[in-house]
Amino acid sequence: MTWVGFPQASVRIIADGNAADGNALHWYQSSKQSRRGSCARCGTMMFFESTAAPGETHIARACIPGAIDREPEFHTFIDQKVDWVTTDDGLPTLASDDPVLAAYKDVGK
Question: Which of 9, 49, 84, 108 ranks highest by number of CB atoms within 10 Å?
């Protein structure tokens, strides 16, 4: 999954009002340090916030229509990818034990 990070203060989430209770977004605490936002109707993962990246909201790239103001910088957790995913695009790759990813070590716990 490709994530794009933005300052939390610049993110405005607008529910479409089609969910029965008027709230089309469901947040859940996925670990001690992180929470994830998904569609309350279909379960599609759309948002990620964590103390590992304080002040940021990460949005699934597929949820952003059109172009964005940046290009991918690297591939993370490359050792956890499925075999059919290729990363031969010249971008740097980071495995789970890379020091750059140390803050994310407990995100899934």
Answer: 49
For the chain, the domains span: 1-66, 71-103
d(CA 106, CA 1): 18
Alpha-carbon gap, residue 80 to 43, rounded angstroms: 22
- How far is the C-alpha of 6 from the C-alpha of 83, rounded, in Å? 30
pLDDT digits (tens, 9 = 90+) for 52-97: 899 999 999 999 999 999 888 888 889 999 999 999 999 999 998 9
What residue type is assigned to position 70 of the chain? R
CATH topology for the 1-66 domain: 2.170.150
The pair of three-digit structure tokens given for residue 7, joined into one six-digit string = 């300052």
This prediction has a pTM of 0.79
